């Protein structure tokens, strides 16, 4: 049996940002005419767009790996890298987007609704953009950051006004083929229908959509047959039409018991919060296959019983098209009534807003891990993690720039308050991250603040000599000087004596 595709996991990889460029402008007579390295381009986003022409997620089932373009690297002469093109993935209307943990990100119910599921990486700044009055010619550029990579789950729930529910082979597909232009597969074996078929029915003034869904059997709400895959489609319909088979040859089955089993399954299906439980929606009953003589007899037999339960009952034949007009009129009435009610409600209901991913209000936080001695301080936060990605660790200047940025964010102060000491291991980012041995600046404000009252670590750190010590060393220096001078004098005298001796000798 083919798999039923209405739920697919996409493996996405958004484009990386291009690296910034380090370049120095050269002119005749001006070989070092300032930095001119351009910025890297941003990587392309991956965007889901609700499109009316898409009806299934089949294409994604076959090709679940999708990626968008990388940004181009910056170049000399202030040329920026090209921006990676966004990848737009059309999905059917009614697609629910979840992240890998199952949290709902968006519900694409209107055509044209868009959600960026995988943002592309940021292009790195070139050295021209990093130049300041203090750092006139940066010898480094920022690296592009990586695009988002991960899994997204798409789930399609058919959006239709009426859902046809019933046992396999009850004639649901035959019925939708008879009342609309839909051409579903019809065959006399169960589970012919694996994908929901949508049909547009025109009845008098009104138009509405009908969904023919896979057959439902006992235990479906626990996942039997096509189970939950099926029920998910029913979730959005405003009315249900029970299609009951009056001509089944299967022993032990009759329209009433079929209906009861299906009602039990529908009752057991948990609808999401805020939606009407399935059985509280308007329901009609169609007794199908009355073109078969036994079918008509059975239909007439069960009709009073069903009516006694409060259902409007229609005897129909999808094959001979008998009784279809009254049925479509009745459905149109239900749908129109529901639409009027919803239109009134929509005025008060808040608009659907696509929320961006949660953004940390604080820039970073420090988590202390490990035992009491070998403590490890982990810094988590979008900014520091991005900055680390942007740093080319082979370039000292770039590392220095990173240190400046981290200090400006106040990370050093927070490390002190968290109890870090010089030499402590600091990791930026989750997992292995980037590991540093922390060398604090001694005069940081935090250190002064956290020191006990009345002390100043700066005084402890420097071993300033006392006055007497300084005087002592002065004398020592002076003594040494006198001694050196005396020595020099003695040498000179010795030299003079020696030369005189030589002269005398020469005279001989
Ligand atoms: N005689 C008669 N046969 C019908 C009628 N409606 C459907 N059938 C037959 O019943 C069989 C099943 O019809 P389908 O329309 O495929 O049934 P279904 O409910 O869509 O079945 P699944 O997709 O498996 O759930 C086919 O052989 C149809 O020809 C009817 O009104 N009269
Ligand atoms: Mg079918």
TrEMBL record:
<feature type="binding site">
    <location>
        <begin position="191"/>
        <end position="195"/>
    </location>
    <ligand>
        <name>GTP</name>
    </ligand>
</feature>
<dbReference type="Pfam" id="PF09269">
    <property type="entry name" value="DUF1967"/>
</dbReference>
<keyword id="KW-0479">Metal-binding</keyword>
<dbReference type="InterPro" id="IPR027417">
    <property type="entry name" value="P-loop_NTPase"/>
</dbReference>
<keyword id="KW-0963">Cytoplasm</keyword>
<keyword id="KW-0342">GTP-binding</keyword>
<feature type="domain" description="OCT">
    <location>
        <begin position="356"/>
        <end position="440"/>
    </location>
</feature>
<comment type="similarity">
    <text>Belongs to the TRAFAC class OBG-HflX-like GTPase superfamily. OBG GTPase family.</text>
</comment>
<feature type="binding site">
    <location>
        <position position="173"/>
    </location>
    <ligand>
        <name>Mg(2+)</name>
    </ligand>
</feature>
<feature type="binding site">
    <location>
        <begin position="212"/>
        <end position="215"/>
    </location>
    <ligand>
        <name>GTP</name>
    </ligand>
</feature>
<dbReference type="Pfam" id="PF01926">
    <property type="entry name" value="MMR_HSR1"/>
</dbReference>
<feature type="binding site">
    <location>
        <begin position="317"/>
        <end position="319"/>
    </location>
    <ligand>
        <name>GTP</name>
    </ligand>
</feature>
<keyword id="KW-0460">Magnesium</keyword>
<comment type="subunit">
    <text>Monomer.</text>
</comment>
<dbReference type="InterPro" id="IPR045086">
    <property type="entry name" value="OBG_GTPase"/>
</dbReference>
<dbReference type="InterPro" id="IPR015349">
    <property type="entry name" value="OCT_dom"/>
</dbReference>
<dbReference type="InterPro" id="IPR006073">
    <property type="entry name" value="GTP-bd"/>
</dbReference>
<dbReference type="InterPro" id="IPR036346">
    <property type="entry name" value="GTP-bd_prot_GTP1/OBG_C_sf"/>
</dbReference>
<feature type="region of interest" description="Disordered">
    <location>
        <begin position="60"/>
        <end position="86"/>
    </location>
</feature>
<feature type="region of interest" description="Disordered">
    <location>
        <begin position="452"/>
        <end position="482"/>
    </location>
</feature>
<dbReference type="Pfam" id="PF01018">
    <property type="entry name" value="GTP1_OBG"/>
</dbReference>
<feature type="domain" description="Obg">
    <location>
        <begin position="2"/>
        <end position="159"/>
    </location>
</feature>
<keyword id="KW-0378">Hydrolase</keyword>
<dbReference type="InterPro" id="IPR031167">
    <property type="entry name" value="G_OBG"/>
</dbReference>
<comment type="function">
    <text>An essential GTPase which binds GTP, GDP and possibly (p)ppGpp with moderate affinity, with high nucleotide exchange rates and a fairly low GTP hydrolysis rate. Plays a role in control of the cell cycle, stress response, ribosome biogenesis and in those bacteria that undergo differentiation, in morphogenesis control.</text>
</comment>
<dbReference type="InterPro" id="IPR006074">
    <property type="entry name" value="GTP1-OBG_CS"/>
</dbReference>
<protein>
    <recommendedName>
        <fullName>GTPase Obg</fullName>
        <ecNumber>3.6.5.-</ecNumber>
    </recommendedName>
</protein>
<dbReference type="InterPro" id="IPR006169">
    <property type="entry name" value="GTP1_OBG_dom"/>
</dbReference>
<feature type="binding site">
    <location>
        <position position="193"/>
    </location>
    <ligand>
        <name>Mg(2+)</name>
    </ligand>
</feature>
<keyword id="KW-0547">Nucleotide-binding</keyword>
<dbReference type="InterPro" id="IPR036726">
    <property type="entry name" value="GTP1_OBG_dom_sf"/>
</dbReference>
<dbReference type="InterPro" id="IPR014100">
    <property type="entry name" value="GTP-bd_Obg/CgtA"/>
</dbReference>
<feature type="binding site">
    <location>
        <begin position="288"/>
        <end position="291"/>
    </location>
    <ligand>
        <name>GTP</name>
    </ligand>
</feature>
<feature type="compositionally biased region" description="Basic and acidic residues">
    <location>
        <begin position="473"/>
        <end position="482"/>
    </location>
</feature>
<feature type="domain" description="OBG-type G">
    <location>
        <begin position="160"/>
        <end position="336"/>
    </location>
</feature>
<feature type="binding site">
    <location>
        <begin position="166"/>
        <end position="173"/>
    </location>
    <ligand>
        <name>GTP</name>
    </ligand>
</feature>
